[in-house]
Design a protein that fits this description.
Helix content is 38%, strand content 12%. The chain is built from 9 helices and 5 strands. InterPro entries: SGNH_hydro, SGNH_hydro_sf.
Length: 212
């Protein structure tokens, strides 16, 4: 039975939008030995952070939340020129009441003040577009592979949008959170993604933020 201070979180979130990169969702890619169609490199769909978060929020809710999960790695790589309204039409039309933004890892290095400002401005715009009439709860998490410049821009944009920033930078510093510590992979890039332990830790951090 849920505690008196808990149920509203789960009941409130009936439409959850996840915007991320390969850690959130990656389709099969034989050339790198990845056969899944879920968050890389969890061992099974139910082990990735998207499924763990959704399952946990569904537990104390009367009905299972609807989810929309989108890989927006193209936004990360081309944040200056990316057409948000055109490319994320479906996401904006979804009208979520909870948004989890899990990006940053594919953003090219922010080595100048100009690129830092441009990236922050692009994230500002993304979060602004997400703030629809129903005023969703917005969660932005830091990078799994910690990066001071990227994480600072994400934090600032999140705070400006009235979102909740989740700092997971410590997770990437712990080798046991990487998939390569759990099993062997033919591709080092896949192996450098969070494994089941890392995915659980990311989910726990997000859930803690949501339920407070």
């Amino acid at each position: 039975m849920a505690r008196a201070d808990e149920p509203q979180a789960a009941d409130k979130f009936q439409k959850i939008l996840f915007l991320g990169n390969s850690i959130t969702l990656h389709g099969p890619s034989p050339k790198i030995g990845w056969k899944g169609n879920w968050g890389m490199a969890a061992s099974a769909p139910e082990k990735d952070f998207v499924h763990i978060v959704t399952r946990s929020l569904a537990k104390s809710s009367e009905k299972k939340p609807k989810t929309l999960v989108k890989n927006i790695a193209a936004f990360e790589r081309q944040y200056v020129t990316y057409d948000l309204k055109q490319n994320l039409k479906e996401a904006f039309a979804f009208q979520p009441d909870l948004v989890v933004v899990a990006i940053g890892e594919n953003v090219p290095k922010l080595e100048t003040e100009e690129t830092k400002m441009q990236f922050k401005a692009s994230v500002d715009q993304l979060l602004k577009e997400l703030r629809t009439d129903n005023q969703p709860t917005i969660i932005v998490r830091s990078c799994f592979w910690p990066n001071t410049a990227k994480d600072a821009a994400l934090r600032q944009a999140c705070q400006q949008a009235g979102g909740i920033f989740v700092d997971i930078s410590s997770l990437g510093k712990d080798e046991s959170n990487y998939a390569r510590s759990e099993r062997d992979f033919q591709h080092a890039g896949v192996a450098a993604h969070p494994g089941d332990k890392g995915m659980q830790a990311i989910a726990d951090a997000i859930l803690k933020a949501v339920q407070h």
